[in-house]
Design brief:
The chain is 33% helix and 37% strand. With 134 residues, the protein is an alpha+beta fold.
């Protein structure tokens, strides 16, 4: 009877662990790459925020745990990008404050994040989409 109870607990624990991995497919799966689908080009970081910079002009620069390769950037024509693990945006609208909050949460709590960037500005990728995961 005791062995049966232990087996049930082990099976339940494994099921919980597997369900968490299905719910968040990006946990422990970092990476950075660029994609090109017709006229739509973008780059993507998956992992964690390792640093944040904000200045008094409202420029936000996020540093990510993984870097893009020069090959990946060249594939989508982003030859002017100097920082391969950073992206920027400006605090112009209320949604940008929400984006900054998501980046801060990933940084402070070490939560998984996925971001998309489209184009570049001042040598940085332009960040425009964020997904935050448990």
């Amino acid at each position: 009877m005791k062995n049966k109870l232990i087996l049930i607990l082990v099976v339940a624990a494994v099921a919980i662990i597997l369900s968490l991995q299905v719910a968040n497919p990006f946990v422990n799966q970092g990476g950075a790459t660029c994609y090109s689908e017709g006229a739509n080009n973008w780059c993507e970081f998956k992992g964690y925020v390792d640093g944040l910079y904000v200045n008094d002009s409202g420029v936000v620069i996020a540093t990510f745990s993984d870097s893009l390769s020069s090959e990946s950037l060249n594939k989508v024509g982003l030859l002017d990008v100097k920082s391969k693990n950073r992206a920027r945006f400006e605090l112009k609208e209320s949604i940008h404050s929400e984006m900054l909050d998501m980046l801060k949460l990933s940084f402070e709590k070490r939560k998984s994040i996925k971001v998309h960037t489209h184009g570049s500005e001042s040598g940085y990728l332009k960040l425009d989409h964020i997904w935050l995961y448990k």
